[in-house]
Amino acid sequence: MSHDPILASVRLITDDVGRLTAFYERLTGVLADRPSPEFAEVRTPRGTLAIGSTRTVGLFGPGAAEPGSNRTAIVEFRVEDVDAVHAGLDDTVEVVTPPTTMPWGNRSLLVRDPDGTLVNCFTPVSPEALARFA
């Protein structure tokens, strides 16, 4: 067993793969890979957001995942200009917190995806935050 794990992806389970995939494509500007109607991957240079249909849950075990029930995780994307991302949103996107500079030096925009998952788009702005992501 490897002691150097590599985070391959974070997967969201949904009743509507097309709708959720379209949301993340619009938010990130990245076209998803769609190997099947039941699965999509939004691949960025440093990580992948996978989107799977509820019809795939049985492969992991009955009831292993339930769409729309997450209230603990936040999906995060580092972006070049968080204010530009905010300006590009339409009124179908629920903005939880408009662009705000956080005490740890990131300028963050918090939204909800169509299934209710929190999504943070952020840009490092302080010297310390910029150094963390250099």
Radius of gyration: 16 Å
Question: How do the SSEs run, as a string of H and E?
Answer: EHEEEEHEEEH
User: How many E strands?
Assistant: 8
Strand line-up of the largest beta sheet? 1-4-3-2
Structural class of the secondary elements? alpha/beta
CATH class call of the largest domain: Alpha Beta
The main β sheet shows up as: 4 strands, mixed
* Shape-level CATH architecture of the largest domain: 2-Layer Sandwich
Our count of helices gives 3
**What is the 3D shape?**
globular
Mean pLDDT: 91
Number of domains: 2
N- to C-terminal distance: 31 Å
CATH topology of the largest domain: Signal recognition particle alu RNA binding heterodimer, srp9/1
Question: DSSP strand (E) fraction?
Answer: 35-45%
Q: Note poorly predicted spans.
A: none
Question: How much helicity do the residues have?
Answer: 10-25%
Structural write-up:
The protein has 134 residues and is an alpha/beta fold. Helices cover 18% and strands 37% of the residues. The chain has three helices and eight strands, in the order βαββββαβββα. The chain has helices spanning 17-28, 82-87, 127-132, and strands at 10-14, 33-36, 39-44, 47-53, 74-78, 94-101, 106-112, 118-124.
